[in-house]
Amino acid sequence: MHKNDHPEARWWKEAVIYQIYPRSFNDSNGDGIGDLNGITEKLDYIQSLGIDVVWINPVYSSPNDDNGYDISDYRNIMAEFGSMEDFDTMLRGMHERGIKLVMDLVVNHSSDEHKWFREARSSRENPYRDYYHWWPAEKGTPPERFSYFDEDNDAWQYDAQTDAWYLHYFTKKQPDLKWENPQVRREIYDMMHYWFKKGIDGFRMDVITHISKDTSYPEISEEELEEKYHGDWPFYYAHGPRIHEFMREMNREVLSKYDVMSLGEGSGTTSEDAPLYTDPQRKELNMFYHFDGMNIGYLPEKYKTVNPDGFDLLEFKQIYTKWDKAFNTKGWGTIYLGNHDQPRMVTRWGNDSPEFRTLSSKMLTTFLMTMRATPCYYYGDEIGMCNIKFNAIDDYRDVETRNMYSQIKKKNGDLEEFIESQKISARDNGRTPFQWDDNNNAGFTTGTPWIRVNPDYTSFNAAAQENDPDSCLHYFRAMVKFRKAHPVLVYGDYQLIDEKNPNVYAYTRTDHRESLLILLNFSDRNSTVDLSEIDTRNVSLLLSNFPGKAKNLQSLKPYEAAVYCI
Ligand code: TEU
Ligand code: CA
Questions:
Q1: E strands within 197-321?
Q2: I want to staple 465 with a disulfide (CB 3.0 to 4.6 A). Which of 86, 243, 471, 509 is the partner?
Q3: Catalytic residues
C-alpha cells in the first residue's frame, strides 16, 4: 500500500463513511425498533466492511414526528433506542475497533416538545420566547413562507396561547430556532462540546444551510426573496444573510478545538456557493453534500414524481463533474447515491430486476468508491437492498409521504399516480430493516417491525452473501480496500472521458504515481465507449464486476464496471 504523502491529506478525506439508520439496523430487545445495543451487537460486522466512520441518524430524545429529526432533549438518548450507558458502550466498541462515530446535529429546529419551546410558547415574556421566530397576530397574517412537510405547505403555525404564529420549515412539530439570538447559539455550542467531550468524532449537520433566515419580512416579498436567493424555492431558504458568520463562529467556538469531521447537508446550495462553506482558509466546515445529483429524473412541477423514462446519464455525468470541479481546489465534497431521505440506490440509479440487481449494485458501488469526494455509503446497499414499493398509503410511516398524500387528496389529485411514483422515490424505501439472514423478519427483530421488512430478504441477506464470493457484500469490501490501496482515488485529478456517451460513464483518476481508468455502463445493453482521448497502450485490468472480463476494452456488457491501470 502507498503511504499517503499528499500535502492536503486529512483523515476525513480518506475515510469511507457507513451511514446507519438506527431505527432499522438491528433490534436487540424485540420491540420492533432498532436500537443502540442492536448496533453494538453488530460491530464486528461493521468492522468487517473495512469502513472508517459510522454516521448514525439522530438518536436523541424525540417524540419522533420526523423520526428523530425533532429533538426534545439534545443531551439524552431516545428511550426507544436505549440509554446513555448504551450509547457509551457503543461508542467504546467502535473506538476499540478503530471506527469513528459521527452524529447528526439537528439545530435548524427543535421539537415543539423541547423545554425551550414549551417555555417559549407559554407567554410572550418568557425568557425563551426569543429562541424561536414569532409573528404576533396584531401585525396581521404573516407573510407567505413555504414549509416542506406541512400539509398546506404553510410554514407559519398559529398558536392561540400567545396569539401569534411561529415559523417551521419542516413539520409544525419542528419549530425553527432563532440563530440570530446569541443565547441560542451559545446553547448549541455548549451542547456540541458536551458530545465532543464524550469522544464523538464529528457531526453531520442537518439542513445547516437553513439556519440563517432572511428576517426582513414583511418588507421583502416572496418574489424579491426568490430573486435575492437564486430564483426558485427552496433556494431562498438556504444560504441566508448571516450563514457564513454563524459557520465561522461555530468553527471558532467549537470545531477548531477538536480533530473532528464536520459534514454539512448542503440542501439549497449551488456549486458556486458550496465552496464558501468548505474552503479551508475560511474556517467553516470540512465538507458538504449536495442534492443536485438526487434531484434529477423527476417531472418538473411535480415534487418527487419520477419521470417514467428514468434519468438522463448525460445530466448525471455533467452534475457529478461540475461538483468535482467545485471542490477540486477549495474544500472537499462527499458523494452518495442513497441515504435515509432517498430511495435505495439500486432501484433509483441501477436496475433492481433479478437479472441486473447484483451487477448494477456493484457498478454503483464502483462509482462511489472511485470518485474524489468522501463516500457516504448507506447501510444495506452493501447487500444490494432495493425499494420495498408499498402499494398502500397505510404501509408508509414517513411524515413526508403521508403529508403529500393528504395534500393530493385534498386537491382531488391523482392518488394512484402518486402511490406509483412513491414506489420509486419515497424515503421509506430506504428505511426498511436491514436484512441479516433468512430467519423471520430477516433477523432484524423477534417482534413486529416498526415498518415492513422487504419480503425479498429470503434471497437478499447478509448471511447468504457472506457465503457467496461473488456477492455484493464481498464486492463492497473489496472496493473499500481498493480505494485505500490507491490514494489516487482520494486525491487524484478527475477527468471525464467520452462526455457525450449516453450509456457509459467513463473517467480517469490521475496523480504523480498512477492513472486509473474507470468504465461504468449505466445501461442494460451492451455499450461501447470511445477512448481515443487517452493512451491505452499499457492498459491492465485491476478490478471488474464481471470476473472474466471481455478482451475488448471498448465494449461493455450491461452494467459492467471495470477499473484499469493505464
Ligand atoms: O433533510 C433536509 C431536506 O432537505 C429534506 O427535506 C429533503 O429535501 C427531503 O427529505 C427529501 O425527501 C433533513 C433530514 O435529512 C431529513 O431526514 C429531515 O426530515 C429534515 O432534514 C428535517 O430535519
Ligand atoms: Ca428495540
A1: 202-205, 261-265, 287-289
A2: 471
A3: 206, 265
